[in-house]
Specification:
This protein has about 220 residues and is of the alpha/beta class. The protein has one domain: Rossmann fold, CATH 3.40.50.620.
């Protein structure tokens, strides 16, 4: 059922909606399923757009929010200016169910766990799904409070067919092995209580931000 057809649960009233809009934050109704795709998007490209469309379809999401971060704490070199990356992201991802947002800057958060804590508090009743690639799952145990993330939001992992192995043998996958649901049940992911995660194979577009930068097509 689409977001507009949902029943039950309190709705965001006019005053609350106005407050979110004034703060530059996306609006979501209780009961909606929202995928969160975080990253520096330096730059955003068709590969990001492709996995977003696949996530909407495979995980049965009402919305996907692109969380364009100020920078990656795990990387020593900073990205291009945020405003420039936001413009590029909005040009690349034009979809009525996708929102490109700089919400981490507006919330003053740096790490994913901090951002998720704030979002859960700001949007009661919204079912969030953290979206990541298999390469991120392979190093997920390096993230600050990664176990807390797994225990508080559903996690959707999008993998190239050839990259499944590194994700499946990762520390996070082993630690939460019993919380994994099969790809055939991916549409249920957002509706199950955490910890729960699902890995789906998606044919990837052969493009990357690092390759675009290396070609000189995008300069920081």
């Amino acid at each position: 059922m689409t977001a507009g057809g949902r029943r039950g649960g309190p709705k965001v009233d006019r005053k609350e909606r106005a407050g979110l809009v004034r703060a530059g934050l996306p609006v979501a109704q209780p009961g909606m399923t929202v995928g969160l795709l975080g990253g520096s998007f330096d730059p955003a490209h068709d590969g990001h757009a492709h996995i977003t469309r696949e996530a909407l379809k495979r995980f049965g999401l009402d919305r996907v929010w692109w969380l364009v971060s100020p920078g990656n704490p795990l990387k020593s070199e900073g990205p291009a200016p945020l405003a420039r990356r936001m413009v590029q992201a909005r040009q690349v991802m034009q979809h009525p169910r996708v929102v490109v947002t700089d919400i981490e800057v507006r919330l003053g958060t740096r790490y994913t766990a901090e951002t998720l804590e704030r979002l859960i508090a700001l949007y009661p009743g919204v079912r969030f799904v953290w979206l990541m690639g298999a390469d991120n799952l392979a190093q997920f145990d390096r993230w600050q409070r990664w176990e807390w993330i797994m225990q508080h939001v559903a996690v959707g992992v999008i993998a190239r067919p050839a990259s499944r192995m590194s994700a499946r043998v990762s520390k996070a996958a082993e630690r939460f092995e019993r919380a994994r649901i099969p790809a055939e049940s991916a549409g249920l992911l957002a509706h199950l209580p955490p910890p729960v995660w699902c890995l789906v194979n998606v044919p990837m577009v052969n493009i990357s931000s690092s390759a675009i930068r290396a070609s000189g097509a995008w300069r920081r």
